[in-house]
């Protein structure tokens, strides 16, 4: 029999074991989630593209056609803008209205340390100008339109080719048996029996008298007669 103290000890051990298992499961789940997040970030970093503003024929200055440059590029969420410029320039991110009017009074952000890297973390349009007086009016501004990366197309479901219907074969009609017309029996005229040849009776030959029996035949006839007589006597 198990005592009360032993039962209590077993229950405590079971609870401790369950708590340890729960803690280990939570720790394992946390590690898995952190690994997934880290892997996702690494993939995004690996796929991210750095766009040097105005490159390769120009840069962030008043002489580069920045509008044409932007229209030739594809900006995807996760990419980066890299502004390279001289100390007399800077980079201001502004609203659409301030971009159109080249207003520098209320920028969203301001950067004056080159090179300036700006991450494109969401889709949509963003607007950048140079804050140096007169530079925005000279064309030193750019609109960046960011799009979401296209997801890979799902594999095309291939419909299995339906088997071709069996070819209907028309049963060949049996060839009718050749009609054979029985040839009429050839009329054979019965042979006329030839008349018996007439034989002219010859002149009868006179019979010769049979010779007298020899002595051997006489003995044989005598023996046969004796046997027949003996048989009659036995009866």
What does this structure look like?
By secondary structure, this protein is of the alpha/beta class. The chain is 32% helix and 14% strand. The chain is built from four helices and eight strands. The protein has helices at 4-47, 66-71, 96-101, 215-234; strands at residues 50-52, 75-76, 80-83, 91-94, 109-111, 116-119, 124-129, 141-147.
In short:
Helices cover 32% and strands 14% of the residues. By secondary structure, the protein is an alpha/beta fold.
Order of helices and strands: HEHEEEHEEEEH
Query: Which homologous superfamily in CATH is the superfamily of the domain at 50-147?
Result: Cupredoxins -  blue copper proteins
Specify the number of helices: 4
- Which percent range describes the beta-strand content? 5-15%
The spatial strand order of the largest sheet comes to: 2-8-7-4-5
Topology:
Layout: H1 4-47, E1 50-52, H2 66-71, E2 75-76, E3 80-83, E4 91-94, H3 96-101, E5 109-111, E6 116-119, E7 124-129, E8 141-147, H4 215-234
Parallel strand pairs: 1-3, 2-8
Antiparallel strand pairs: 3-6, 4-5, 4-7, 7-8
Which features does this protein show?
235 residues, alpha/beta, Immunoglobulin-like, three-stranded mixed β-sheet, 14% strand
